[in-house]
Design a protein that fits this description.
2 strands; mainly alpha; 144 residues
Amino acid sequence: MSTIRCANCGADNVAGAQFCAACGAALVTPAGPPPAPPTYPAAPQQAPAAYPAPPWAMQPTPQQGTGTATAALVLGIVGLLAWLLPLIGLPVNVIGIVLGALGRRGPSKGTATAGLVCSVIGLGLTIINGIAGAIMMVNLMHGR
């Protein structure tokens, strides 16, 4: 009959027992030899070119395409002020509309949309002011 010796008190216990009959400590059954540690292939000295760089080695890239949206917003705001002078307001607002439409394709859609809306409003005011100025000029020339 085989026995298991208690690591706590040294008493002999029946094989298969989970607790020591003398002190009540948990008995550890001897297992076979410990398993061999896993072996891994040696790490390559340099990563192959096909693998991308790890995230911690990558440099952050600046956000591309925000300049167009910002320019559209600036031109939209300037266009809202320049509608009083149609010769200045017309080209400023048209360029603002074009840049706003192009900027909506980039990452700054909100800024581009705000510039687009401001430019459209400015263009409408510029056209109304231009028509009103032309009517007033005609009336002044005809003496009405």
